[in-house]
Amino acid sequence: MPCDLVPIIEETISLYREGTPHICFTLESKNDIPKLNIDKQQFKRAFINFFDNALSAIGQAGEISVTLQHLFDEKGVRIEVADSGIGISEEDKPRLFEPYFSTKEQGTGLGLSIVNSIISDHNGKISVMDNEPQGTKFIIEIPV
User: Fold this and answer.
1) What is the pLDDT of residues 54-65, one digit of tens each?
2) How far apart are CA 51 and CA 82, in angstroms?
3) Domains, the chain, ranges and CATH?
4) Residue 26 phi, psi (nearest 5)
5) 83: helix, coil or strand?
């Protein structure tokens, strides 16, 4: 069923705002974002995972930003989730989406594997890169 992505992200951010006053959350749409055929609960779960990982990477204070852009030529929507945390090493990046791979002592290694499945189930792609000047950026592309 077609859903608006912005309210899903806003709802998810609101779950964190009160408990994390030391984190600045921003949500920006570069242009009009069309409705997407997505499972609202699954996407909320994906954003919870991104935010939980970002919070553990940030520590005392920092920021998490979500940027949306309608890619007219590619007939899709690009979602960038960036944080100002410690970042991810080059050798860990290729394995991030594998089940049971974790860079955290308490991590199960299932979070990003589940996120990868959610994105794949929606015919999308996900990748990871360094966020400049510091942190990590996940790029998700979902077809319209």
Assistant:
1) 999 998 899 999
2) 9
3) 2-143 (3.30.565.10)
4) -130, 145
5) strand
